[in-house]
């Protein structure tokens, strides 16, 4: 049996974690069962997101390939059950609040079955990026106005500190000043275009755009070069509601601002006409909200993490009572919600949803109760796995083979966005992104990096070493710096054409 205790920083300090209290009940449950302990891994995490998709303890099958290489389709479970290994996952932060031994014993008894009576599944086994959780995430941004009405607060208030780090004025002034230095040098060579394009992907409520534009016009007046007259600021977001809020916030600059509804993973679909013309692409807290798979290296073999969303039967019963439906009917109602949205759902199924408010309440309760099962499926080869349309899984090899066993995010959506954005940059342009970046691959061995829940959306840390590796292959230098404000996990990534 191998024990992997990841939150090593929690073993020291004034209140160190009691490892025995977290591991003892689990080991006792394993010892009392007939499971082959030589095929067991016990993984302890500290899940810092109080709202997340994990139970306190869960079991993840590590599927065997059995002489034939699997691809992304599941290996038939009946063919591998006798030789699979398993991983027991513990959330150390919450482990003292539950009967850990009893829960572990129950899970062991149902460990490789699809018939766990306490769980109602919403989908089959899938790579995480294809899970229904991302449909919930998309619905949050599409119907954000209804969610905010129900909660009584703006989504930005759910962020740590209650606001985006991109509104830090000192950091904004530094960014604009560096732009002016660049533009001055191009003016000296008679090489500065008449139109100066700046793009923001993921505008939030417009607060950061307003901060940026207000600082820009003030610094431009001091600078005396009249760059503001030539500025075109393009606000881009997936959510029409968010863009409408942003347009209101920057009304004082409306002559210099345009807005585009677009998918952040494919910015060239709307902005392709600006190829090689954008001097700054400005992104804040977007990459961590895009679909991602996870991959792992265990015992020398590479795996993709498959997930399967579910509700506990108890949670489904409580949600069903709200809408006059038995527990087993709740998944179908959730699928209708994700397909129609809460407003149309109330019209389409009035017997269950007499009002939009009821539909929103159903949505919020379903999201809160949503959990993920996980299993490890062997990959036939990294070259057969696509991170993004033009990026092969081979890009993961140096990270996966960097040392001991590891599990990491692929950040498929962030990679797709990155490789689709950099061709838009002017030869002297930059992409600047504030986000939750893992900047050293070892960070995946020492802490939990998501997924967590921010209000009605998803957050995953972003694989910085992977983006840097891909950037170098495409001729870009990618640099990471701790964000200027203290007390934040935000890191600033800068990408620009290699000198």
Could you explain how this protein is built, in words?
Helix 6 crosses helix 7 (207-223) and helix 11 (330-340) crosses helix 12. Residues 67-82 have low confidence and may be disordered. The protein starts with a strand and ends with a strand. The chain folds into two domains: 1-116; 155-291 and 396-497, Vaccinia Virus protein VP39 (Rossmann fold), CATH 3.40.50.150. The protein is built from 17 helices and 23 strands. Helices cover 33% and strands 24% of the residues. The protein is globular, with a radius of gyration of 24 Å. The protein is of the alpha/beta class. A hairpin with a 2-residue loop joins strand 19 (452-454) and strand 20 (457-459).
The H-level CATH homologous superfamily of the largest domain, spelled out, is Vaccinia Virus protein VP39
- The general outline is globular
The helix content, as a percent range, equals 25-40%
What name does CATH use for the topology of the largest domain?
A: Rossmann fold
Bin the strand percentage: 15-25%
SS field, number of helical segments: 17
Structurally, the number of domains stands at 2
Q: How many strands in all?
A: 23
The largest pleated sheet is described as:
7 strands, mixed
Mean pLDDT across all residues, rounded? 91
Distance between the termini: 50 Å
Radius of gyration: 24 Å
The CATH architecture of the largest domain is 3-Layer(aba) Sandwich
How do the strands line up in the largest sheet? Answer: 9-8-7-10-17-23-22
Low-confidence stretches: 67-82
- Assign the structural class, choosing from mainly alpha, mainly beta, alpha/beta, alpha+beta, or little secondary structure: alpha/beta
The CATH top-level class label of the largest domain: Alpha Beta
């Amino acid at each position: 049996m191998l024990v992997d205790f990841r939150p090593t920083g929690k073993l020291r300090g004034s209140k160190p974690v009691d490892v025995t209290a977290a591991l003892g009940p689990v080991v006792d449950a394993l010892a009392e069962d007939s499971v082959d302990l030589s095929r067991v891994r016990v993984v302890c995490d500290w899940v810092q997101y109080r709202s997340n998709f994990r139970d306190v303890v869960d079991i993840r099958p590590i599927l065997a390939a059995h002489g034939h290489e699997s691809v992304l389709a599941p290996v038939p479970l009946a063919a591998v059950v006798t030789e699979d290994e398993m991983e027991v996952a513990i959330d150390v932060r919450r482990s003292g609040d539950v009967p850990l031994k009893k829960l572990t014993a129950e899970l062991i008894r149902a460990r490789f079955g699809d018939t766990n009576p306490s769980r109602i599944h919403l989908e089959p086994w899938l790579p995480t990026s294809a899970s229904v959780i991302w449909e919930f995430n998309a619905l949050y941004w599409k119907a954000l106005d209804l969610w905010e009405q129900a909660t009584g607060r703006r989504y930005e208030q759910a962020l740590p500190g209650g606001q985006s780090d991109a509104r830090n004025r000192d950091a904004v002034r530094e960014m604009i000043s560096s732009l002016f230095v660049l533009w001055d040098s191009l003016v000296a060579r008679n090489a500065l275009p008449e139109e100066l394009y700046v793009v923001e992907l993921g505008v939030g409520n417009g607060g950061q755009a307003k901060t940026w534009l207000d600082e820009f016009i003030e610094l431009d007046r001091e600078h005396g070069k009249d760059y503001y007259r030539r500025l075109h600021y393009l606000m881009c977001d997936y959510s029409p509601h968010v863009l409408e809020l942003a347009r209101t916030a920057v009304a004082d600059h409306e002559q210099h601002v345009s807005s585009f509804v677009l998918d952040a993973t494919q910015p060239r679909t709307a902005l392709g006409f600006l190829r090689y013309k954008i001097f700054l692409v400005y992104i804040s807290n977007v990459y961590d909200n895009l679909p991602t798979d996870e991959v792992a290296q265990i015992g020398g073999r590479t795996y993709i993490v498959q997930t399967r969303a579910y509700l506990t039967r108890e949670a489904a019963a409580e949600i069903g009572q709200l809408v006059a439906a038995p527990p087993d009917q709740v998944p179908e109602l959730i699928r209708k919600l994700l397909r129609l949205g809460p407003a149309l759902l109330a019209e389409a199924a009035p017997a269950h949803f007499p009002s939009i408010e009821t539909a929103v309440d159903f949505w919020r309760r379903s999201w809160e109760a949503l959990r993920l099962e996980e299993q490890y499926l062997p990959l036939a080869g990294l070259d057969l796995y696509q991170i993004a349309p033009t990026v092969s899984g081979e890009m993961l090899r140096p990270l996966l083979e960097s040392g001991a066993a590891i599990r990491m995010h692929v950040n498929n959506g962030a990679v797709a966005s990155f490789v689709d954005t950099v061709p838009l940059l002017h030869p002297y342009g930059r992409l600047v992104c504030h986000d939750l970046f893992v900047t050293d691959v070892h960070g995946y061995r020492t802490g939990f990096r998501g997924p967590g829940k921010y209000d009605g959306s998803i957050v995953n840390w972003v694989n910085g070493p992977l983006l840097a590796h891909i950037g170098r292959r495409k001729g870009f230098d990618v640099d990471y710096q701790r964000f200027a404000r203290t007390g934040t996990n935000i890191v600033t990534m800068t990408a620009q054409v290699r000198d």
